[in-house]
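Input record (one chain):
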Amino acid sequence: MIHPRIDDLLERTDSRYNLVIMAAKRARQINNYHHQLGEGTFEDVAPPLVESRSKNYLTLALEEIAEGKITYEYPSR
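The corresponding structure, as predicted from the sequence alone:
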C-alpha cells in the first residue's frame, strides 16, 4: 500500500503534473541537504519538515506535501 495515498495528495494540489513537479523538486532539495551535512556547508536548503521512518527522499517529500508543509503558488504574470 502506498503511503500517503494519491487521493490525499491530489487534494493538496490542482493536478498530477503539479504534484510530480513539487515532489521531485523537494526530494532534490532534501538530497542536497543530506549531502551538505557531510561537507559542513549549509545553503538555503531546509531540512526535512516531517518525522518519517522512510529514508527515501521522494517519500519524505510526498509526506511533507500530504501534511501541507509544502505548497505551490503559480507565479503572477
